[in-house]
Known about the structure:
By secondary structure, the chain is mostly helical. It is 55% helix and 0% strand. The chain is built from 16 helices and no strands.
Amino acid sequence: MGGSSLWFAVKSPSGMNQTSEYRQRVLACFKALASGDAIGKQTEMLSHPEVQHWYPEGISGFHGQPGEPIPRYRDNRKHKWRIGETTDDTEQTIAVARALLSTPKASHTEFGRELLKCRKSLHPGVKSLWTLHQSDDPSRTASDGDGCGAAMRVAPVGVLYSPNRLEDLVCAARESSIPTHGGQLAICAAAAVAGAVSAALEGWPAADVMKLAIQAAQKAESFTPPLKGNATSTMAAAIQKMHDDLSAHESLLASELAEKYLPDKPETKVPLAINLALLTESAQLAANVGGDSDSVASIGAAIAGALRPDTVNDAWFDVVQAINQDDLVDIAEALAKLRR
C-alpha cells in the first residue's frame, strides 16, 4: 500500500520538544494543515461524481492560477473562494492556538473569545459558530453539536500537550470544543485528533499514533453527554472499525472510499482523516473523495505532517502563505516552545 513506510518504527527521542527536530515537526503540522485545507476546498461538499466532473484527471494540487476563484465558485454570490485560500478550518486553528498562548490553562472562555474573532463561513448555515456569535458570549457552552468543527481546529492542543499528559490533553480538547460543539461525537473526535497529533509529534510509529488517538477518544467519553440522534457507534469504535477495514487493502481508491466512507457525517469525517493520514501521507486522496474534503484533508495532513515532515509540499504552502498572509508560522513556533 502507498505510504506503508509509516508502519515502520521511527525513533521516539526523549525531550524532543527541546530539539530542532521537534520544531520542524510542529511547523510541518501547521503548514500541512493549512495546505490540506486549501487543497481540499476545491472539492468541498461535492459528490464523488461531481469531483470527477470538475477535475477529470483528479486533484493533484492547486488547479488554476493561485488567487483566482475556484472554478465552481466563480458565480457564487456569497464568497468567491480563491485557489490557495484557506477556510474556517485554518482560521479557527489559529484561534485555538492564540487562546493557548494567552493563558497557562486551557479555558473554554478563552477559546470562545478567540473564536468570536473568526469571520470565515460566518453565516446561519454554519450553525455552530453562528450561534456563538449571536450570543456574543465567550463563556457560552454548546449543549449539542456533533460535527467536525471542534476536531478541525484542535491540532494546537496536540502540540501543547505531550502523550504522557493525556488527561490534560483530553480536557483541553473538550474545552476547545464546547464553545460550539457539545455532543459526544464532536468532543471525542477532537480528543482523538489532538491525541494523534501529540503522538505524531513524538515520532511514534503510526500504529502507536492510532492507539493513542483511540485511547483519547475513549477517555473523552467519560465526561461527555450520551450519544444522540442516529448515532449508534462511539467515535473510538468508528475509528477502529475503519482502520481494520482500510489497513487490509493493498491500495485505497477515491471512488471506493466515497462509496463506503463518504465524509458527510460525523461517523466518517474524523475516522477517515486519521486513517488517511496514517496510510497515505497526503491530502490529495481526501480531496478526490469529496464530501467535507477540506476538513478531512486539513485534519489528516496535520497528523501526517507531524509524523513525516518530509512529506510536506513546500510549494503548496508557498501558495497558501502568499494568498492568505497570516501569522501561521509565527504562531506555530511560539506554541512549539510551550510543549508540556
